From TrEMBL:
One of its GO terms (molecular function) is ATP hydrolysis activity. It comes from Salinarimonas ramus. Residues 11-240 form the ABC transporter domain. Belongs to the ABC transporter superfamily. Macrolide exporter (TC 3.A.1.122) family. This is ABC transporter domain-containing protein. Transmembrane segments: none annotated. PROSITE patterns: ABC_TRANSPORTER_1, ABC_TRANSPORTER_2. It holds the Pfam family ABC_tran. Keywords: ATP-binding, Cell inner membrane, Cell membrane, Membrane, Nucleotide-binding, Translocase, Transport. The lineage of its organism: Bacteria, Pseudomonadati, Pseudomonadota, Alphaproteobacteria, Hyphomicrobiales.
Amino acid sequence: MNVESTTRLVFRTHGLAKVYRTGDVEVNALRGVDFEARAGEFVVLLGPSGSGKSTFLNIIGGLDRPTTGEAWFQDHDLAHASDGALTAYRRDHVGFVFQFYNLVPSLTARENVRLVTEIARNPMSAEEALDVVGLGDRLDHFPAQLSGGEQQRVAIARAIAKRPEVLLCDEPTGALDSRTGVKVLDALMRVNETFGATTLVITHNAGIAAIAHRVVRFADGRIQAVETNTARLRPEEITW
Ligand SMILES: Nc1ncnc2c1ncn2[C@@H]1O[C@H](COP(=O)(O)OP(=O)(O)OP(=O)(O)O)[C@@H](O)[C@H]1O
C-alpha cells in the first residue's frame, strides 16, 4: 500500500513529554516528541532500552497520559481525556499486542478471541480473525497446545477482531526465535494490508525495520531520525 501524504492523519503528537517521579527521583522518559502517523501506515519504532518507546506507545494508546504536550487520535484529545474517555478510546479504536500474549489458558484460541468479539460493537467473527493470522485450523486448541508464535498470532487475532483503526505492538516478536517471529510479522503485515489498520511496532531488531513504510528512531526520550522505506521487504526476506 502506498501511503500518500494526503492520507488522513490518525495520530499527531506535539512536544510530548513524560516525567516519571519515584520518590525524589525524576526520569524524563519523553522530552518533546513530535510525531504523525497516517491511516494505513506501518511504522516501526526502534531505539535503545530506556529511550521512551513504550512510554510513547502507552500514551498514544490511551494507557498513560503525558506530563505536558499534545497527543491526538483523530479528533480525540488524549492528553486531557478523562479516565472514562480513555477507556472508551481504547475499547473502540485500539488493538494492543504485547511481548507476552496474556491468553487465558483455560480457553481455546476461538474462545480467547470471543472474549473480545462478544463485547465489541462491530466485530468480525473469531473464526475470521484467526483465519487472517493463519490459524484457521487451530480454533479449538488451548494455549498450551500452541507454539509461542501461534499464541502470539492468537493474541493478534484477539487484538484485530474488533476492527480497530490502530494496532499498537510492543515487542511482538521479543520472545520468539526469528523463524517463528517471521510468521508473526507476516500476520501483522497481512492485517495492515487487509484492514488498513495503522500499525506501530516497537522492536529491538533493526532488521525488522525493512518491512515498514516508515522507521522512527528514538534516543533519550526524543525522536532522533525518521526514515521512509522506498522499497519494503516481506518478513521472509529479512534476517535478525
Ligand atoms: N512507570 C514508570 N515509573 C518510573 N519510570 C519509568 C516508568 N516507566 C518507564 N520508566 C522509565 O522511563 C524511561 C523510558 O522507558 P520506556 O519503557 O518508555 O523505554 P523503552 O524505549 O520502551 O525501553 P525498552 O526497549 O527497554 O522497553 C526509562 O528510563 C524507564 O526506566
